Amino acid sequence: MQKQQLLYKGKAKSVYETDDQDFLILHFRDDTSAFNGERVEQLARKGQVNNRFNAFIMQKLADAGIETHFEKQLSEDEVLVKRLDMIPVECVVRNFAAGSIVRRLGLEEGQVLNPPTYELFYKDDALGDPLINESLSLSLGWATEAQLEQMKALTFKVNEVLSELFAAGDMLLVDFKLEFGVFHDRVVLGDEFSPDGCRIWDKTTKKKLDKDRFRQSLGDVIEAYEEVATRIGVPLD
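RESULT FIELD:
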């Protein structure tokens, strides 16, 4: 598989074409951003840690019967993925109240949400990824009814699998976001899973072990990512 020209550069990853139209190469960079790109820094080892973390999680999901875009890890900071026709709707599960839902509804951070909540957001950086619903997704042609049903079912399945995985490491999976795409008419998970895109707390102390350490200037961001990885058995060496 030959890496070719740059296709897209996101906030933390670069996407490259390959000589096979069905596959792309993702490069996990050390860039870290918050507040829709208003704050950007380079954090040493981040690309490597997230790439290995993501590869580990994708294998766990595959073992649970969840198809993802992940094919194989190519290097310390690159991975081969399926090329998907992305659905511009982001799925968010919240097991505990944190982040925007706390601000929107005046909830106490850490409040248990039982059953977990499920929200949809429109993927558009210029608009700040606004909160939407299934009706809007259908009316504006962002997804079909069948796709929305599959995305919801897969998101809750991911939540079940990963909540158990993090619980085994004495951690709480507070919330996370997922994106999906279509590969040969199949709805497939088309997102990374790392501490960049979820919230993870220590079960006892509620210490934040995710990107909120960067957003809230708590320090030791990559050290926290590595702690999470170690607790769930991600090989970092």
